[in-house]
Write a structure and sequence with these properties.
By secondary structure, the protein is of the alpha+beta class. It contains 9 helices and 7 strands; from the N terminus they run αβββααβαααααβββα. The chain is globular, with a radius of gyration of 17 Å.
Amino acid sequence: MPVAVLTLAAVLIAVIVAVNWGGTTAEEGGSPSDSGAPTEVQNPEQPDLSAAETRDEADLLAAGPVDAPVVLVVFSDYQCPFCARWSEQTLPSMMEHVDAGELRIEWRDINVFGPASERAARASYAAALQGALWEYHDALFEDGERRSESELSEEALIALAGELGLDTEQFTADLGSEETAQVIAANQQFGFDLGATSTPIFILGGQPIVGAQPTEVFQEAFQTALDAAE
């Protein structure tokens, strides 16, 4: 593992261990739970973690210009209730900054809850190949709720693609393709290498945020990062 990644992993793990938070983990019986409360905000003087940003023009799991002054890296799982809540409550306001060209969002599925999460991540990438990543993402987290494991079966995911008007034949092929599997596996390993083994975890403007914090926390962190970048 590169030294830079090791350093990032050490910092991120330290942040996770140092705070009490209500995120979900793979160790909690393998089943997401809605219990718990969000963590307090991390120490604002944490070392810079902006090396986690890829700014890759070919990245289909991203929104916003590659040269945006601020980047938000999201480590998520489609079976995580806190990820669903954040996507409903906070992601829309972050997307406003994306539309303004001030923010880039890079989405990284780490699938801590197993096969159903991994299938959903592959399905979101298959949707991204048809330019419908965020529509599919929003459908998976509709009304701020996660779908049940049975609703993340291959058949259900293909049916959802059809409901969204996607080419289901192409979607099915992409869902099962080796390319899709490799992209999802690489993003997951990237998150694990950084020490992101729970969800949700964010790196906003190089600073970690652990848990589904209130929208105000993200807005303040974004403004701080934007001011620093200008």
